[in-house]
Design a protein that fits this description.
CATH architecture of chain A: 3-Layer(aba) Sandwich
Oligomer: homotetramer
Largest sheet of chain A: 5 strands, antiparallel
Shape of chain A: globular
Number of strands of chain A: 9
Strand order of the largest sheet of chain A: 3-2-8-7-6
CATH topology of chain A: Beta-lactamase
Chain lengths: 304, 304, 304, 304
Amino acid sequence: MDYIEAISQSYDLVLKLEDRGKIANYIPELAKVGPDKFGVHITTVDQLKFGLGNYQEKFSIQSIAKVLSLCLAYKMQGEKIWSRLGVEPSGTGFNSLVQLETDNGIPRNPFINAGAMVIIDILLSNLGDPKMELLKFIRSLTNQQNIDYSRTISNSEKSYGYRNVALCNFIKSFGNLENEPEEVLNFYFDLCSLEASCEQLSELFLFLANNGKTKHDNTQILSLSKSKRMNALMQTCGFYDESGEFAFKVGLAGKSGVGGGIIAIHPNQYAIAVWSPKLNEKGNSFKGMRFLEEFTTLSQQSIF
Amino acid sequence: MDYIEAISQSYDLVLKLEDRGKIANYIPELAKVGPDKFGVHITTVDQLKFGLGNYQEKFSIQSIAKVLSLCLAYKMQGEKIWSRLGVEPSGTGFNSLVQLETDNGIPRNPFINAGAMVIIDILLSNLGDPKMELLKFIRSLTNQQNIDYSRTISNSEKSYGYRNVALCNFIKSFGNLENEPEEVLNFYFDLCSLEASCEQLSELFLFLANNGKTKHDNTQILSLSKSKRMNALMQTCGFYDESGEFAFKVGLAGKSGVGGGIIAIHPNQYAIAVWSPKLNEKGNSFKGMRFLEEFTTLSQQSIF
Amino acid sequence: MDYIEAISQSYDLVLKLEDRGKIANYIPELAKVGPDKFGVHITTVDQLKFGLGNYQEKFSIQSIAKVLSLCLAYKMQGEKIWSRLGVEPSGTGFNSLVQLETDNGIPRNPFINAGAMVIIDILLSNLGDPKMELLKFIRSLTNQQNIDYSRTISNSEKSYGYRNVALCNFIKSFGNLENEPEEVLNFYFDLCSLEASCEQLSELFLFLANNGKTKHDNTQILSLSKSKRMNALMQTCGFYDESGEFAFKVGLAGKSGVGGGIIAIHPNQYAIAVWSPKLNEKGNSFKGMRFLEEFTTLSQQSIF
Amino acid sequence: MDYIEAISQSYDLVLKLEDRGKIANYIPELAKVGPDKFGVHITTVDQLKFGLGNYQEKFSIQSIAKVLSLCLAYKMQGEKIWSRLGVEPSGTGFNSLVQLETDNGIPRNPFINAGAMVIIDILLSNLGDPKMELLKFIRSLTNQQNIDYSRTISNSEKSYGYRNVALCNFIKSFGNLENEPEEVLNFYFDLCSLEASCEQLSELFLFLANNGKTKHDNTQILSLSKSKRMNALMQTCGFYDESGEFAFKVGLAGKSGVGGGIIAIHPNQYAIAVWSPKLNEKGNSFKGMRFLEEFTTLSQQSIF
């Protein structure tokens, strides 16, 4: 079945499903989003673009942004970043402090909160105007100038993010941050506040389906090897303690965010973004997961 | 670079490397193997067959056999087996009891020892002559009649396997085994004693690169969906707490054993087996891991 | 208030209380005991003896026996036993395997199951007829010849004790047992099957309230220093993860068993035993705990 | 042997011992203290007062102060404080975050850092000028007006206390703090900065050896029951994961601080304070522990 047909059928099927997820409520601002939003957009390396539902509406991409900050740090610093964090699935939730205590402050991977903070720390130490330069990097991936941080969201997180404050100070206590926790947290909350639509997301991430090169201006963002490794990381660690389930049922590299967004990549084929705000108990979009499962089943394509 | 050239160059390069691994010594019989053995064999869906070094010598495949017992249980019982074990990477070592205590006796995945025991329990409950029927199933994958259990190895494991006895009784105490621990352990130790050469291994596992269908007699062993899921499982969970590293550096679905063997699968392309007995600190073949990393780099092919 | 009055008032009060505990059901034989049994007996160093309720009925003393096996091993081997186990409260349940994994097979203290097994192992290695010699030692504490093991109970435990089999093999896998797990378990289950009445218990343990010396025949069982240390151990570790609560509310050295018995010691004053089979959620006798709390409040005596 | 003789002999013996401890260096100011300081002072309920060495020199009492803040909160709020923290030994180090994650933000006891923060939170919510009123309470225990906070020490802790910032925000994230982490930490660091000499400490804590009543002005600070419970808590939880060892070898209720001080209480007899800055690997004064062990052995007195 071709992509458009597979998306259309999957969309219709999942739209009717009872949504057993719950909207994220630990950040007051996130809880204000319409719970029934549902959008999807695919962009292929052959330049097919197709979307359904609320695919042009911007939402808080939250942890999906951790892939982008990692790309920039990885591009700048190369493999030496891995001396400060690992590439292993954590087997625990996204904000667990237990493993950090066992592992002496070395986060298991760059997609759990602790790992993302270490990446932020690397950007802070190596960029003159980190927040602006990261935004510039992100915008350059697709020439979408209107992608931006949301001050409302980041302020909301700053007021309630006690656990992230705990995590960040905990890493610092092990000596694995160069900058002060306050600065790291400040940038971290901004990073998580980035907003984009499904359409924009699928275009932003297309370079990872295209061996590290953008389609709109043919820039090699990451080398072939680094691009493959980014996909490997997303596949093994992109969904917290549901990463195995995602590989098992969907079979793509991907990353989710508590705003209900998911980006998924089929190397050499496409990037696809889906958004539905209600989350399953593991913190991943309930309908988003189901949609992608249907889609890869119907399109009979997965990386396995 | 074509497969033969990539294998040849990788083989030569890794052959010269200092082997920083250590031979497994917890089972006396395994410690008797020549530490410098090094063999590799590829079998492609196009029927290319090529090997180097000790690729025709049989060795103890150990945990690699857990993929085969899982295939049989999955084929027979379908998705309902997942009510008794998970599909998530564990984030801990292969024989950890900690997670079992937290998870009330539900193993995280079928490739850690605890999970393999639950699969064994399923086979025991559903087969008349489990040990013989499993062997028949394995032999049917490639018509290799001389693949067999090793009584010497299994007896050696039975005498020293206190930790596995602990694991098995622990699962039983949570009610997640139907059969008595003694029976489960008996079959488990036999399973791990299976012997095959690299050549045989790459042929045995070819059906997983071929959408679940054997090449030698065109039998659909597993459905397309189940075959993809087996590959996903191997990729996220096949190397214990080094699974992320394997995905990151090698980028194939695979499974290792403490005998020093590794099987790796590139869906739609090939199955490749490598054997070198000395293990790194995570319990995976030191040279085997390095070889596959070189090979996928040179052949510029990975699933990502 | 004097002891007799304090016991009488506490007994009456607790007798009327609703028993919110549950009878231990993991060993079928234990579940057969009358749930409303309630007995108490005090023996003082001044030779006051006083009991109420079912104080002459024998019951399964279970883990209380671990104090007696420890006394014998400690008497025989002295402080060197502490190279194989600790003297710290565990902070976890009585049969946790987690800490053993972290602590490389060294049990935190001699009263959790793992620690008791190490003590059993010491007795097995140092006695000719361990089971009989332990019984002789116990009987000598008070000349009670009819204290004995219960074959019914020990057989019942042997059939269902998967978790203890797991624990024992786990310790063995770390090299902290000299004998085979099967032998250790066999003796362990016999130890836990010992039966005594409240009257007998308070007499058996009187030597620990009397600086290590028996009253009936003035034998120095343990030195003053060792006797004090036994009491300290009971106080910090005698009630699993409720040891702090017991020290806080009762303020005596003591040890409980899942048969619903508790022995408590006030150094230089008395030994008191109480029995009521229904257990609170931590595995200690619900009414037994309440009785002792009332008793030390009314008698205005505790070691603090 | 009488107390003066036992102290003198123990002091001489331990003075000559090689000090295998290390001075606390995580707070720069603490590292400036003379490593060979060694002082001891006893105050008995019979009003014997006797000291040796640097017993009149003030030092940073650190965690010993947690007993005093707990006394005030317990006096004011009674048993209801235990709904927010436990009375169990933790089995882990003083600043572990692992247990908090397992226990949903309920600290195991009031003497680990997390528990002390909850107590601070209670004082903040119930006192008008918490810092001054706590000081007033402490001074009233003995009429020592020159006991005070040290701004130098508290500032030093505030600059390096990332782990405590982590702990405090972690508790807050579970909802177990009413006040903002910044306020709690501020007071917490002040509390730990309190300075007193051995002489002052033994007088401050004498009321706990005297059933809750001060000797200098006969004030009932805590009821008999509460006073006993404070002693029980110190005994089971006062030395982090060396509490069992302290009960086993010393046999008194006590509390240590990373400044190298220890206060120990023999109910109905005495309070004794010892100070020597170098710490063993568990964070307790190396010579202080040894001194108390000798002292209770020579005086042949312990609560057991």
